[in-house]
């Protein structure tokens, strides 16, 4: 059940893809642990269970300036749910059991156990150690029966109901019950970025392509395992109806009422609660009608948005735009592939264009908006899912954070397909001609925009340097051929360096991606 994924770099970012199970990470003392803090923060913010075990300096040298001495237990406290050092060798098993259990029970998160250097080399009398067996899976709790009935009344009274599927529903393995609930109740749903795939993106009740409209006009929202944080615009105007009735489903009681007071709070396990809701719906045979004004509004908006994306996707002019690249990638990807995605436009546009059909098959920058995690995620995903394709779609800037992980992929012959959507910069860069002009005007360190990266950098050659396959892609034909070749190779990783128009942008949005209005 527990997996330890390590590599030379960024070991903590290698979380197993199936984050309902736990991950473990071993790090060295001092700077090793300090580097792990970023990964711990990322795991904790995303509610992912992980146990970090750090070596630390010898206890009898504490305060004396020992090698890599650092207040590690204290440092980890901000980045974890639990941080401790066993008081003796005999205490190690029970502290580890507590760390594992704490990482998974309640709202999952990161836990830290500190092992002093002198403990590593010491011996213990086996008979003095209390054997502690591994904890059982987290206990499951149901929501209060009255609250479930009330939730169904709120849904029945709604004119414009909406189900929002968060990543909590993915980790709660609610996919089967949820599918039955959505199909029985006839309700429209939309997923959050990592809730994608719990129900397939091409499901006829999915209104993701009308996301802004659905959020803005819904009068009742069934919120399944998603926080009303920045990803969901805090559940407040201008992105939500001020009178929206929220039915909040979460296993964390403290989450209830964050930003919006729920009309009904259903505390407990998502899968169990969706089954409770389903039983209610089955009992009275209620179904939200398919011929309402709400459905027409949503369907019209979906059709209008699809038309705009389609027009951009079918453009063949060079250099390519994002939509054309993603449209052609999506046509070749197998439905069961695991998609890892990070970047700015690359992640935002990729999320709408690349479909997910299965739960827990997508990882991205997540709740913390962390860049640099993609390659580590892809490695972890590959080590747990041998028969599946792992496709890692990276912006060029995001790739730069941990691009050297291609060495790890080549070392272990992990056939990950990396697609770098290269627009020469962070958000956007400049084309090679402009870059040359800037160099003529003066020193590039002052003349080049700070968001630009080296134009047409050969990321594909980073991959070939270690023995993987690298492709430089400018045209749709090159994209198709290189992606087909990469997807048929199970022996080694590939990297497609897809050069796109640096001025390519997201299609016009109704609202900016980040809500900045005062709460
Ligand atoms: P998203 O990124 O999809 O918006 P969040 O990470 O904000 O999702 O929220 C996930 C929520 O799901 C958290 O509030 C967490 O407490 C909750 N959660 C996780 N697992 C379960 C589960 N098995 N049952 C109920 N709630 C869960
Ligand atoms: Mg870029």
Tell me about this structure.
It is a single chain. This protein is globular. It has 19 helices and 16 strands. Residues 1-19 have low confidence and may be disordered. The protein has three domains: 11-128, Rossmann fold, CATH 3.40.50; 145-300, Rossmann fold; 314-499, Rossmann fold (3-Layer(aba) Sandwich). It is an alpha/beta fold. It has a six-stranded parallel sheet, sandwiched between helices. Helix 3 (92-104) links the parallel strand 4 and strand 5. Helix 5 (145-157) crosses helix 9 and helix 10 crosses helix 11 (322-332). The structure holds adenosine-5'-diphosphate (ADP) and magnesium ion (MG). Adenosine-5'-diphosphate is lined by residues 46-47, 107, 166-168, 171-172, 192, 194-195, 225-227, 229, 231, 250-252, 255, 269-270, 367.
Unreliable stretches, pLDDT < 50, 5 or more residues?
Answer: 1-19
Name of the CATH superfamily of the largest domain:
Thiamin diphosphate (ThDP)-binding fold, Pyr/PP domains
The CATH architecture of the largest domain: 3-Layer(aba) Sandwich
Q: List all distinct small molecules, including ions and cofactors, that are bound in this structure.
A: adenosine-5'-diphosphate, magnesium ion
Q: Which class of the largest domain in CATH terms?
A: Alpha Beta
How far apart are the first and last residues' alpha carbons, in Å?
42 Å
């Amino acid at each position: 059940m527990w997996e330890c994924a390590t590599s030379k770099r960024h070991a903590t970012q290698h979380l197993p893809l199936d984050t309902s199970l736990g991950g473990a990470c071993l790090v060295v003392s001092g700077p090793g642990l300090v580097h792990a803090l970023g990964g711990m923060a990322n795991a904790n913010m995303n509610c992912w269970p992980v146990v970090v075990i750090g070596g630390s300096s010898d206890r009898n040298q504490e305060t004396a300036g020992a090698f890599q001495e650092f207040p590690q237990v204290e440092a980890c406290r901000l980045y974890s749910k639990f941080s401790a050092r066993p008081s003796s060798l005999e205490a190690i098993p029970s502290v580890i059991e507590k760390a594992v259990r704490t990482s998974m029970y309640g709202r999952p998160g990161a836990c830290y156990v500190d092992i002093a250097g002198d403990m590593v080399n010491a011996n213990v009398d086996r008979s003095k150690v209390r054997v502690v067996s591994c904890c059982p899976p987290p206990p499951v709790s149901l929501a209060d029966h009255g609250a479930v009935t009330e939730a169904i009344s709120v849904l029945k009274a709604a004119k414009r109901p909406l189900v929002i599927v968060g990543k909590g529903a993915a980790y709660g393995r609610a996919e089967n019950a949820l599918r039955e609930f959505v199909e029985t109740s006839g309700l429209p749903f939309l997923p959050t970025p990592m809730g994608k795939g719990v129900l397939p993106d091409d499901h006829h009740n999915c209104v993701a392509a009308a996301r802004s409209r659905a959020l803005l006009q819904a009068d009742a929202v069934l919120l399944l395992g998603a926080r009303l944080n920045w990803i969901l615009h805090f559940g407040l105007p201008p992105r939500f109806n001020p009178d929206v009735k929220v039915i909040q489903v979460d296993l964390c009681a403290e989450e209830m009422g964050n930003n919006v007071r729920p009309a009904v709070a259903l505390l407990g396990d998502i899968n169990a609660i969706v089954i409770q809701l389903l039983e209610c719906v089955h009992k009275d045979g209620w179904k939200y009608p398919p011929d309402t004004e709400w459905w027409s509004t949503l369907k019209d908006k979906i059709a209008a948005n699809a038309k705009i994306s389609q027009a951009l996707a079918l453009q063949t002019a060079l250099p390519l735009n994002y939509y054309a690249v993603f449209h052609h990638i999506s046509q070749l990807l197998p439905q069961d592939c695991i998609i890892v995605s990070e970047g700015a436009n690359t992640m935002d546009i990729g999320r709408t264009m690349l479909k997910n059909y299965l739960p827990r098959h997508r990882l991205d920058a997540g709740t913390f908006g962390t860049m640099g995690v993609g390659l580590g995620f892809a490695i972890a995903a590959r080590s747990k899912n041998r028969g599946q394709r792992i496709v890692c779609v990276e912006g060029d800037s995001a790739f730069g954070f941990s691009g050297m992980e291609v060495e790890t992929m080549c070392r272990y012959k992990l056939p990950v397909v990396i697609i770098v959507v290269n627009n020469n910069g962070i958000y956007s860069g400049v084309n090679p001609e402009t870059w040359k002009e800037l160099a003529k005007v003066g020193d590039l360190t002052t003349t080049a925009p700070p968001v630009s990266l080296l134009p047409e950098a050969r990321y594909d050659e980073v991959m070939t340097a270690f023995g993987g396959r690298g492709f430089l892609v400018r045209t749709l034909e090159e994209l198709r051929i290189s992606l087909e070749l990469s997807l048929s190779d199970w022996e080694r990783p590939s990297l497609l360096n897809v050069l796109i128009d640096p001025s390519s942008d997201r299609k016009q949005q109704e609202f900016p991606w980040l809500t900045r209005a005062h709460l």
